[in-house]
Each structure stands twice: as structure tokens, then as C-alpha cells.
Amino acid sequence: MFRPVLYSPVLHSAIVAAGILLGSHAAHAENRIALVIGQSAYRAVTPLPNPANDAKAVTQLLGDAGFDVLAAPDLSQNELREKVSEFAARIAAKGTDTVALVFYAGHGMQIDGENFLVPVDVDPKREADIPLQAVRLNDVLNTLNSVPSKTRIILLDACRNNPFPDINRTAGHGLAIVDAKVGAAGTFVSYSTSPGAEAEDGTGADSPYTTALLKTAREPGLSIEEAFKRVRVSVNQATEGRQTPWDSSSLTSGFSFFGQQGDATPKPPAAKRTVDDWRRELQGKQPEAANELIVSDGSVEAYEAFVGLFAQPPFGPQARQWLDLHRRMVAWNNAVISNTAAAYHEFLVQYPDSDLTATARKLEERMRNRPIDAALAAANNAVVAATVPQNSAAPSNGSALPSNVALTCPCGPSAPPPTLLKKVDLPPVKRVDPEPPKRVVSKPPPRRGRRAPPDEEVVVVHRPPPVYYEPSPAPIIPGGIGIGIGIGGFGGGHGRGGGNYGGRDRY
């Protein structure tokens, strides 16, 4: 039986208000898209079984979390570049309020301080082949940063062992540090293990990193920062301390895989605790509980406090190893950013025997051979030579100062060293055009009849009175005709007069 529904203004207003709120929430809901890459079918080396499984499981996880997922397994170099470009185009189409996530499982390595994602079609014979055949991680990050978006999340299960024996003997292990705070704000980067370390593929269907991520990310409302703290602890425990994930964040808005945390403003970061703060926090705790706290935090201060309190195995040596590796990778990152012969030499002085020694020596030599460095070294030697006293003793072997003495010598004289020239210290050369010669304007002589200026000397010249020549009366010659002979005198007079005439003023 049909019953008419009575119109209620109150109910109508409530329905309209709810519709407005829901529509507003939908209009402001963030877009989520993801690129998931699993590299298993390597052709030149032994295939990896787990990346394909990891990629499938993460695709399911992200799909359930509301992501539009672009799955791309077993990519060659060209295909990998094309997929990254296609993904960037999708971000641009979605708009600025977009969360873009990239998950990569497969081989990754660092060459000359740069990180590379390894396609399945690589077949390198030497280190120099990797930049030609692989894809730089920085190129992927720069492509994502070139498209306006709200948040960028990069998850790299790519720190597995280097599968190329010839390259593995000279290249550094694992991946180099990527600092999200240096790039565009709104970026989160996570490694499956610490920089410079190697991750395990695992004995199960998925890697330890992906296994922990699949479990932790599904908790509703859990922020991404807290989720990956739990991932660190889970992986550290599953591998008995051999592997500890690492992350770097410059996020400006909250995000969680499930729940509404992504719509909330993130909490401001807590004040950084000192070593003494952590020592008081860890004092009296059991080693297992204290180790879980420092692994979750992941800070240098926490590890320093721990190794001072708990030296016994297994946690004491594990923490010391993590701390030493972290410090070495930070020093290596600083050297790579500086990219000078002096910076690489300083790293070698601090760490003369490590997996990065061969790379540091190669880059130091490469930097020394740059023309600009050679010119700078010559300028520095000139400054040193100019400041050495004339009576100072020369080197015992009679050789000149080495070109790298000012840049890399760790030992200095007792007196303060001279100030050396640096490219940044040289003042810019300003081109100054020579001053044109001044034009000398001669004053015209005053015209006759004009009054001379008061500062000029007046010279009055009195001309002699003119001389008039008149013919003398002709002598009377008796009995003859009177002939005037004054012409001769006239002629002579004319001759003198000519000179006089020539000297007269012409009016």
C-alpha cells in the first residue's frame, strides 16, 4: 500500500545541508594515483622472484586505498622512461590536489654517488655502462617535481645486492642518501634499508620491507610517518637487525593510506631530543625495549645514547654498525654535493678503507684534472709563493709546491695559512672604458673693435704715420725739354713700399 510522504521543511533543510556537505567534501577530496613497478625478469643476471609478487600485493593495497594504479612490470630502459613520462602526464591531468605515489621493487645501485633504477634489459660490462643503460633516480624525481601536485611518495624496495660481479668490486653498496628536504616540499622517500646497506629479498612470497608495509599501512587513520616507524621496527626484528628501513620527509600535509588523516593538517614536528634526553629515556629499560625505541625514532642522537648504555650483543654491535654506516653515508653525501677534489680527499682521510674508496679516488682524480681546478690551483700556488718569506727554506728535494697542497693537505704550518683564492672569492672584473681625451677648444682672437676681457693683457700698437711720396720738381735744363727722372725714385720707393704694403692690415 502506497503511503504519501508528508513534506517536512526541517527534514528538507537537513537533506539539503547534508547534500551540500557531501558535495563539498567530494569536491575537495584528494586525487590519488600510483605507478607500481616490479622488476623480476632480468635477462643478463639471475631473475628476482619477489619483486613481481611485491608489485602485485602493493597494487592491491593501493587500489583498496583509493589509488588509480598504473601497474608496469618488467620494464626495459625505454619502457621505464615512457611509463614515468605517462605517469607525470596523468598527474598533470588530475590537477594540483593530487597524491602521486611510486613503488619500485627490483635492483638498484649507486654509481659515482648517483642512484640508478636497473631495467631488466641491462647488460653492463663496466661501471660506465650503468648510466647509459639504467635510469637515474634523480631523473624520476625531477619529472615528478616538474608537475604540480599535493604530495609525492617514493617507496624503493631497490637496495638489493649488486648482481654484476665486475661492477660490485668497485661500486658502492646499496643506495646513496636522497634528502627530501633539499627538493620540492611535499615529498616522502623511503628505502627498504639504510643508505649504503643491502636489503634482503626474503624467504617468503614478499620481501621483508613489503611484508611489513602491507600489514602496517592498512591501519585506519595511521599517518604515513608513524606507519613507516612501525615498518622500521618490523623489518629490523624480522631480519635480526641486519636490515633497517630509512626515510626522509618534507611533507606539508597529512597522509594516511586508509582513513581521514590525509585531510587533516599534520602535527608540527616535536622538538628534537638530544643525546642526554635519550640517555634519560633509555636508562633502566631492557635492551629489547630500548632497541625498539631507537629503531622507531631512527635518529643519530638516539643511537648514540643507546651505544653508550648497551654495549652487549646483539643490540649493541648492531646499533654501533648502524651509527658508523650512517655517519659514513652522510660524509659521502656531503662530498658528492660539494663535488670537489678537496671534498673527496677529505672523505678518503676519514674513511680510507670502505666500499666507497675506489669511487672516491676516481672522482678526486677526475676533479683535479678539470681545467678550472688546475687554474685555481695555479692561482693558489702563486698566492702561497707570494706570502712565503724570501729567506725561507725551500723543499729539501728542490721541487716546487705541489698543485694540491692548498686544497687537500690536512697538515698546516704553525703560523696561520695564507688566504687562498677561491672561485667564489674572486671579485667580478668590471670593464671600464678608457676616458676619452678632453677636447681643447681654443678661444678665437677678439675681433677688432671689441673690448678685451678684463683678465687679458691689452697691448696698444701705434702705427707710424703714413709717408707720402711726391715727385721732386724737374730740374730746369737750359735749352732742353724737361724730363722727370723721379720714376727711378718711385721704383725704389715702390720696392720699399711694396714691403711696407705687404705688412699693412687689410681692412
Write a structural description:
The chain has 507 residues and is an alpha/beta fold. Among the domains are: 242 residues, 3-Layer(aba) Sandwich (Rossmann fold); 82 residues, no CATH class. It is built from 17 helices and nine strands. The chain has a six-stranded mixed beta sheet, with helices on both faces. It has a three-stranded antiparallel beta sheet with strand order 4-5-6. Strand 1, helix 2 and strand 2 form a beta-alpha-beta unit.
List keywords for this structure.
9 strands, 507 residues, 6-stranded mixed sheet, globular, disordered N terminus, 3-stranded antiparallel sheet, single chain, disordered C terminus, 17 helices, alpha/beta, Rossmann fold
For the largest beta sheet, what order do the strands appear in spatially? 2-1-3-7-8-9
- What do we call the CATH topology of one domain? Rossmann fold
Report how far the terminal alpha carbons are from each other: 139 Å
| Residue-averaged pLDDT | 78
Question: Regarding CATH, which class of one domain?
Answer: Alpha Beta
Q: Helices and strands: which structural class?
A: alpha/beta
Strand content: 5-15%
Please report the number of helical segments: 17
List unreliable stretches of 5+ residues. Answer: 1-28, 388-425, 477-507
